[in-house]
């Protein structure tokens, strides 16, 4: 649930802050998720907080919160801020403009290289790691058949995103480097235009854009799967928020409520698809197609996650896409208790 949007969003990334979810009526709920351990009566000191959640679009998080009532009994208020993709979201977390947000594997690395003040606090782990949520695709009728054939070609890539990492690793897997191709750095909306008008030869992009393009005749040249790509994503939080013990405890509750709404969504696919369709303004069929690879669970960060991120960071440095080495352990700070796994949550 990370890195996606089909709307033509502003270049600055941040579009709107919604009204507080507490103002949303419970009549829109598909089913209540049940009270969190952080209820208003248990933590009255949290009432002073308003948390802003960074939303990459495409995951339906804002619509799901309204449908499920995930924050209805929260003592704090919640707002959502929409971004085009991960890099500006990480920057907003560092500046304190948002408190929490979900991004792909690359934005934390590029953000750390610029010394942004944020931490990776949890992992959104794929339940189906054999299915790719992002791909390198070519247009209908393209003669390109292999990754090696990309030599000298133009590839649209959202700079600093997970799709950027996929492109680098995919090229490396066949002995190519960024110098052997023309990486055209475009945000998702501009990338879609370039791809659909034939101005680029390939596009490294995630769902729903990838799924919709394939539905319309595009072909997958390389899937975003191990060993060339991670299938999970990461939650990042403002270091300033994490440094306040009371706010940190409340922010943990925010994260667990988000995890709970997505755990519910995975078990109620039709509701989930409607949420994505509503939030993204795309046909229900396209929402369903994009969610076929979108089953994830929220867990704490593991040593293997840190190792995978470090390997990716080193690959970016080696490819000349970073100017300084990133020490991934220094930007991690688990916000969830050991053993937490949202796929084990039950509802009713």
Question: Which characteristics define this entry?
Answer:
33% helix; disordered N terminus; D-Maltodextrin-Binding Protein, domain 2; 5-stranded mixed β-sheet; 348 residues; alpha/beta
What fraction of the residues are assigned to beta strands by DSSP? 15-25%
Q: Whole-number average pLDDT?
A: 84
Q: What is the H-and-E element order?
A: EHEHEHEEEHEHEHEEHHHHEH
Q: CATH class of the largest domain, please?
A: Alpha Beta
CATH architecture of the largest domain: 3-Layer(aba) Sandwich
Give the % helix.
Answer: 25-40%
Give the N-to-C terminal Cα separation. 24 Å
Largest sheet: 6 strands, mixed
Largest beta sheet: strand ordering: 2-1-3-10-4-11
Structure characterization notes:
There is one protein chain. The protein is an alpha/beta fold and 348 residues long. The chain folds into two domains: 21-128 and 232-344, D-Maltodextrin-Binding Protein, domain 2 (3-Layer(aba) Sandwich), CATH 3.40.190; 134-223, D-Maltodextrin-Binding Protein, domain 2, CATH 3.40.190.10. The protein has eleven helices and eleven strands. The protein has helices at residues 61-68, 86-95, 107-113, 162-173, 188-196, 209-215, 239-242, 245-267, 269-280, 284-290, 303-318, and strands at 50-55, 77-82, 100-103, 118-126, 134-138, 154-157, 182-185, 202-206, 219-223, 233-238, 296-299. The strands form two sheets. A six-stranded mixed sheet has the order 2-1-3-10-4-11. α2 crosses α3 and α8 crosses α9 (269-280). The longest helix is centred in the C-terminal third of the chain and has 23 residues, at 245-267. The protein is globular. The chain starts with 49 loop residues before the first strand and ends in a 30-residue tail after the last helix. The relative contact order is 0.19. Mean pLDDT is 84; it is low at 1-32.
């Amino acid at each position: 649930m990370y890195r996606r949007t089909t709307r033509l969003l502003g270049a600055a990334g941040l579009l709107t802050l919604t009204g507080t979810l507490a103002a949303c009526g419970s009549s829109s709920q598909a089913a209540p998720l049940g009270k969190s351990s952080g209820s208003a009566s248990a933590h009255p000191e949290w009432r002073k907080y308003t948390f802003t959640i960074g939303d990459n679009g495409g995951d339906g998080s804002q619509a799901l919160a309204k449908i499920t009532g995930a924050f209805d009994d929260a003592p704090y208020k919640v707002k959502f801020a929409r971004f085009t993709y991960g890099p500006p979201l990480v920057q907003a977390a560092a500046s304190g403009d948002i408190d929490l947000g979900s991004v792909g594997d690359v934005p934390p690395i590029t953000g750390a290289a610029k010394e942004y003040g944020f931490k990776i606090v949890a992992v959104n782990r794929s339940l189906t790691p054999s299915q790719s949520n992002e791909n390198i695709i070519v247009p209908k009728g393209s003669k390109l058949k292999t990754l090696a054939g990309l030599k000298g070609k133009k590839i649209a890539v959202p700079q600093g995103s997970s799709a950027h990492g996929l492109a680098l690793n995919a090229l490396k897997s066949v002995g190519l480097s960024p110098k052997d191709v023309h990486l055209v750095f475009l945000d998702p909306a501009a990338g879609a235009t370039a791809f659909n008008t034939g101005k680029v030869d390939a596009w490294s992009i995630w769902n729903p854009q990838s799924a919709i393009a394939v539905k319309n005749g595009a072909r997958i040249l390389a899937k975003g799967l191990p060993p060339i790509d991670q299938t999970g994503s990461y939650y990042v939080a403002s270091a300033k928020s994490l440094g306040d013990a009371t706010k940190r405890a409340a922010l943990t509750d925010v994260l667990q409520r988000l995890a709970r709404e997505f755990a519910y969504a995975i078990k109620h696919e039709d509701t989930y698809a409607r949420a994505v369709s509503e939030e993204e303004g795309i046909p229900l069929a396209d929402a369903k197609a994009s969610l076929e690879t979108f089953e994830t669970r929220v867990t704490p960060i593991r040593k293997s996650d840190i190792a995978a991120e470090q390997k990716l960071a080193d690959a970016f440095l080696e490819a000349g896409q970073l100017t300084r080495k990133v020490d991934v352990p220094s930007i991690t700070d688990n916000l969830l208790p050991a053993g937490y796994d949202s796929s084990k949550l039950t509802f009713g």
